[in-house]
## 1
Amino acid sequence: MLSCRGLAYIASDYIDDELGRVNRMSVRMHLMMCPRCRSFIESLRTSTELLERHSGQPLSEEYARSIDRQIERALADRHDR
Ligand SMILES: [Zn+2]
């Protein structure tokens, strides 16, 4: 079963639809059971779409990685509390 951390790690690939079938399934199963990750994915999707529309091109690798780091930090904070 995918953890919240594991989900955060592959969330941007999930949004870009770049996950394999197995990973996508486990993300969906996790989202069904975890409202926190569901709203997390939703807000990530929204900000990704806004950014792409704004720049007219997909996010750069570097920026995607910085988002990943922010996500991991946010999740770590939440879980340690
Ligand atoms: Zn979760």
Note: The chain has one domain: 4-80.
## 2
Amino acid sequence: MSALLNLEQVDAFYGSAHILHRLSLTVQPGERVALIGRNGVGKTTVVNTILGLASLRGGRIRLGALELPRPRPYLAAQKGVVVVPQGRRIVANLTVEENLLLGAANGRKGPWTVPEIYRLFPILQERAHTPGTALSGGQQQMLAVGRALMANPSLILLDEPTEGLAPVIVDQLGQIFNAVADQGTALLLIEQNMSLVVRVAERYCAMAKGSVVAQGPVENSPAGLRDLEAHVMV
Ligand SMILES: Nc1ncnc2c1ncn2[C@@H]1O[C@H](COP(=O)(O)OP(=O)(O)OP(=O)(O)O)[C@@H](O)[C@H]1O
Ligand SMILES: [Mg+2]
């Protein structure tokens, strides 16, 4: 079976700024992978390169059997790869429900529908007709996750989904990520909170200066946590 996502020796740029250097990364169907590293190492640029928002100038990106010489956001969604972007990007003048429907626009048909999202996040149903940006930070993150699920992805790229959220909300999101993964959706979790990483991920890739410099299994134990934290300590 081919990987859902396969980056091979990728070089990526913003204009003339060379950010990713021969970066290789794979996610297999159903796998839960964490992508970790300090601020500014290029984690979001990995996502942006898959979407075509940073320019791919070396190496290759494949989604399943399809090679993407010119990545584009709609190509990723059509192939079942969706992003929950850093900072959430809820559309301000749309309601909660309209934001969810937007997620289905470029996606695939499948089990995730508005009622299913409301079953997963009852608070979104209560706030269905409220402007999306009127929600609290944690609720907006639930909406961003719900919107991604509406595309019925086989892989979700989560870019720092717990940034700035209270511990109780982080715990709740961790449970949701595990529930989604238990249904067979693969996750690439970009995260600075290593205690969440050990609860969700089974494998990690650590980045430094635009490359993956270490990877291995994640162990949910104090020793496993210490190993991961070494990659993100300043
Ligand atoms: N649009 C851009 N144009 C030029 N350089 C950029 C652009 N966006 C990001 N960079 C630079 O690219 C590098 C990698 O940034 P990136 O956002 O991928 O890091 P990150 O690992 O996601 O960091 P964080 O943990 O803070 O989100 C940084 O040095 C950043 O300053
Ligand atoms: Mg980032």
Note: The pocket of adenosine-5'-triphosphate (ligand 1) is lined by residues 14, 17, 19, 37, 39-45, 86 (CB under 6 Å).
